[in-house]
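idk why but the lab printer keeps eating my pages so im just putting this in chat instead. protein + adenosine monophosphate:
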Amino acid sequence: MTFNQLGLSAEILRAIQDQGYSNPTPIQAQAIPAILNGKDIMGGAQTGTGKTASFTLPMLQRLQPYANTSVSPARHPIRCLILVPTRELAAQVFENVKIYGNHLPLKCTVVYGGVNMDSQIKDLRAGVEILVATPGRLLDHIQQKTMRLSQVEILVLDEADRMLDMGFLPDIKRILALTPQKRQSLMFSATFSKEIKKLASKILKQPILIEVAKRNSVSNLVTHVVHPVDRERKRELLTYLIKFQNLEQVLVFVRTKNGANNIANQLKSDGISATAIHGDKSQPQRTQALEEFKQGKVCVLVATDIAARGLDIEDLPHVMNFELPNTPEDYIHRIGRTGRAGTKGWATSLVCDDENELLEGIEKLIKTKLTKRIITGFESKEAANLNAPKNISNKKERHRHNKGRNNVNTHTKNKSILETNLKKHIYAKVKQSKEPQDPLFNHPYVPAKDSPVKNKLSSDNTNLDSRSTNANKYNSFHINRRKKEDLPALFMPNPINSTK
Ligand code: AMP
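predcted complex ->
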């Protein structure tokens, strides 16, 4: 299938061509025609498989009849509202809308918290057809009466499961109540729990379910490895792994804001360039940290889960979980930052004994047993106990055994052994211990043949026959990708004002 077959307008096809995309991804091939037909959609696709374009391209086309160059704000009411959970994702989606709408005189802006409202108000007052927003800041604007949602025709909830969880739900309900009943609603996420699906079905009208990968599945392009280690030795191991593999770009996830600062500082004192991103940093600091990391100015970005969703860091090779996330779905989102757009990735987790339950939850969700690799010199005490001979009755023997166990912790003495060990074993031969159930998910970007979309929300089956595993096509897809560049004024008549 080609983009030409999807019924997109010449202006949109031109923007796609500018990006160097040769074929639609599976989610695009299925979602674009359905959205053009005005259907409500619940779309599930692995992260990094072109979800943003799958709703942005048809949305732009549906708004194309309204495109006009009038300077009157009344001629530019908000017709499409895209809600996302984080500021960084809002900025990213906004960039995408600008790129795909480059040849159309539709206006767009973005509003999110942590930055001054004034320039956002100016943009909104000038009128925009498309608004990308985080819920909190959107409600601030609604309260200040700087915008109205009464003419919204298309509503998009990106990372829908997060938007509908308990934290965001009250805000989302308030926002939905301000939009017209008669509207097209689109929801996209890489993970959907049963509860969220049920809730979503109340918001969507006769939705079409599009799942191009099994729900809650992970890409086979990502190799997972778990290193069992004691909590108090995680920092040491983190530095060790980064240094001795010469890792150049690693996104490290931790659970707390404090933890993120501490780990970043620790890495810096170990001679590794690092910065942290979390909710307690100011928005300019957050933006700067992400930019420095994207541009390769720092080797490690230590992040809380605010960076887990949707962020597209080109060709990021390595994600590390310094601590496992509290909810298994977040594992999928975290590691979804690597192995994107057809590239390979590594997902490494440092797991201490009291995280074993979390690990089991993750394995259950993704239906894959993750490979465990103990690094010599960093064995957890529990592992050392398990390996110990069971009946050590003789006192001398017991002493010898305990001495051996203590030696395990003197890893610095054995540095050369560790280096050799690490180089030889850890990454060269790691394989998934159990193949994911559907090998077709290896290649999320293989152009799909026509595939009937599902018409029933209740149906969970995926039409796997519609996907090809032709490796050459897959490779050429990736090679053909052109690096995105910042584009100047993208919408007519006024340049879009970025409020970042
Ligand atoms: P997303 O899942 O929307 O974050 O997209 C992941 C990456 O895939 C982004 O860098 C997009 O620019 C890229 N992408 C989206 N659609 C295509 C396509 N049809 N062909 C090649 N790359 C694409």
